[in-house]
């Protein structure tokens, strides 16, 4: 399975806009299964983080994705995003 380690990515040192786009790309990767299995929870998590960092595109994609998820999946994704933001 393809894994993307954000701490190893050189773009993490870049400005907020570049990071937001990176997080948006990660959300799309998990949503579409590009190089990894489809994981809607991970996709929503990364799109949520991207939206918080300022990506309007990610906010729109996150809203679309949420319509395909159960309430339990949404809760898990929101918890994961909150945990990530708290630790990073």
TrEMBL record:
Identification of the protein by name: Sel1 repeat family protein
Native organism: Rhizobium lemnae
């Amino acid at each position: 399975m393809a894994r993307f380690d954000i701490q190893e990515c050189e773009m993490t040192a870049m400005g907020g806009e570049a990071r937001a786009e990176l997080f948006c790309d990660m959300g799309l990767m998990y949503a579409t299964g590009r190089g990894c299995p489809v994981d809607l929870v991970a996709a929503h998590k990364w799109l949520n983080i991207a939206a918080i960092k300022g990506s309007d595109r990610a906010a729109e994609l996150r809203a679309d994705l949420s319509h395909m998820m159960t309430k339990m999946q949404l809760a898990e994704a929101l918890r994961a995003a909150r945990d990530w933001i708290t630790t990073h």
